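INFO worker-7 received task bundle
INFO bundle size: 2
INFO processing item 0
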Amino acid sequence: MLAFVSMTARAEAVLSCEEVDQMGEALTALGIAMDDENAEIGVGSEEEDALRQVVEGLATIAGAEGDEDLANASLAMAEAWDNRDRDAYTDALAEAVAKLAVISVNECEQ
């Protein structure tokens, strides 16, 4: 799942409608898994690179889309990442998912 999210985020800056929906679903699953498993954002963990790439990918997409809300969510994720704060990371992740849902409704369901 993390591989899909990071590959999609790096593959192209502006996502298709299908990719927006897939990314939203993958990020939702990631947030649930992090909550359910009480995952740590630890240095040297298997998930470390993928979680960092999610932050970087969302920032890239936000910049390409010119979307301030998505940019703010990625910044909050980056700050939580730096602080190794799993709860803040998942909260910001939820904000990113909500913004992707808004993008989907506004740009894909017209």
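INFO item 0 finished
INFO processing item 1
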Amino acid sequence: MDQKKWEAVTANYSADKEYIGDGYYRLRPTEEGYQMAFLVPGLCGETLIHPEITVQVIDGIATPIRLMDLEHTPTLRLSVKEGDGEEIERQAEELLNKFMAAKKLSL
């Protein structure tokens, strides 16, 4: 995970979901670290995770460890513990880029 992009995102997003252009963006702290999520509006006014990535921060290094996507059919649930690290890392980079583009952030 690109640490400089991660730092830019954490400095510019909050735990409150924020609608920007194509959906809601949210970065909230958890016991494990953070959950970075893009949420799309559902048919009944709810928001659906598309995706949500759990990021663990150890000694200042952010590492994606879990992914859940409720818009994917079937529901996508990936975990580093299950050997899905490469795919989670790839999707975490995509989501970081999406967060950067939404607020026109640059390094």
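INFO item 1 finished
INFO post-check item 1: Residues 3-102 form one domain.
INFO post-check item 1: The beta strands are 18-20, 23-29, 33-41, 47-58, 61-69, 76-79.
INFO worker-7 idle
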